[in-house]
Amino acid sequence: MKKKNGWFLSCLAVGLMVLSACSGGGTTQSGGSSSPAPEGEEMEILKTEAREEVLNIGYTGPLSGPAAFYGENTVAGVRMATEEINDSGGFEVNGTTYKINLVTLDDMYLPNEAGTNARRLVQEHNTSVVFVPHSGGVFATQVFNEQDNFLIAAYTSEPDILTQGNELTLRIPPAYDQYPEPFVTYQQERFGKRLALLPTATQYGKDWTEELVPVWKEHGGEVVYDGEVDFGKDTDFFPIVTNALNQNPDVIFVGGPSEPTALLMKAARDLGFEGGFMVMDQAKFEEMDSIVSLEEIEGAIGMLPIRDSNAAGAASFIEKFEGEYGRVPTAESAFNYQALYVIVEAMKLAGTVDDPNAIMAQMDAGVKALPEDKLVWHLTGVENNGFDWVASIAAIENGEIMHVED
């Protein structure tokens, strides 16, 4: 896949501004004492015993604004793993027991804010690992993370984050470039070869579309409508869906936040569309059921819900998450939960909590050392700085979610 140079250069400029604008502050000390948390920052003051220290892990993501629910889903998994590790007495590295202090900052889904927050987390809290759950924030942070010596735990399926030559970036979810081939094959065989495009109007939606359309055409398909939806502004989907349906598509490509994506799909059905949907990985079937029934989106293909995972630790994770948060966990929560456990295993094997290069070098071994009861999805190792997950594609058939083998 070609590198998106314009996008990267814009992020480079953002990152350079971050470098010049940020200033230092207080630090979090071992033993859990800290300066007062600034507005928008979440910290927990931990009590430690002799030979115990506090390890700060950073998170910058959207905790307010339109993407707040997505941000809360990602951080909830990291938080739950943190609490479990601490409740079990922490983890030991070279004779010292560490408990984790999760420091979270709100970036409102803005790349420049994510860069600023990451720099603060390193300067003020000595974090060697920072979770960043969106591609814009990852690109902005990649400008300086190797110089500042911290690992980016990147929750984004954007493939290009691993084409920048950045050795301290770990991609957590599967890259989305693995999905177009099975998506296209399934939809063209079941519904036909006329495609309408109605993805989210974000850069992520544009990149997904750029990956999908060539595969659609290589299989003999044609794009009959090229549109996009700004879910931050558009609330009435009937006009744009009507325009798309006027071109008689067999399949519609949709995606964005789960609930508005479901409303878009429902609008298509209400207007008489009987074809299939290809749903980009940002939207989740398990979050759509309050808006649209599975019967109404028959023939849709997208991500297999985490509740359908048969991994050894899935059932206990789901039960605990539902009990703690009162909702069904999504991949965002589950993958980030598992990622923190893998990072801890890598730290133990590396013999360090503050050398990100040594930690990254042990990440594949950390996956293989992960206890089975923490395996909530099938993870086989690390390849080219990205977690290598077993494919998790699902389609709606006869009103039920069915696993599609790749």
What is the fold named in CATH at topology level of the largest domain? Rossmann fold
Give the biggest sheet. 7 strands, mixed
Helix/strand-derived category reads alpha/beta
CATH superfamily of the largest domain: Response regulator
Beta-strand residue fraction = 15-25%
Count of domains? 2
CATH class identity of the largest domain: Alpha Beta
SS element count, helices = 13
Distance between the termini: 20 Å
Question: How would you describe what is shown here?
Answer:
With 406 residues, the protein is an alpha/beta fold. The protein folds into 2 domains: 5-176 and 313-389, Response regulator (Rossmann fold, 3-Layer(aba) Sandwich), CATH 3.40.50.2300; 180-280, Response regulator (Rossmann fold). The protein is built from 13 helices and 16 strands. It has helices at 5-21, 68-87, 111-125, 135-142, 145-148, 180-190, 203-218, 238-245, 258-270, 314-325, 331-350, 356-361, 363-368, and strands at 41-42, 52-61, 91-93, 96-106, 129-132, 151-154, 169-171, 194-199, 222-226, 251-255, 276-279, 301-303, 379-383, 386-389, 393-397, 400-404. The strands form 4 sheets. Strands 1, 2, 3, 4, 5, 6 and 7 form a 7-stranded mixed sheet that branches. Strands 9-8-10-11 form a 4-stranded parallel sheet, sandwiched between helices. A hairpin with a 2-residue loop joins strand 15 (393-397) and strand 16. The two termini are 20 Å apart. Residues 1-39 have low confidence and may be disordered. Residues 56-365 form the Leucine-binding protein domain. It comes from Halalkalibacter alkalisediminis. InterPro entries: BCAA_transport (IPR051010), Leu-bd (IPR028081), Peripla_BP_I (IPR028082).
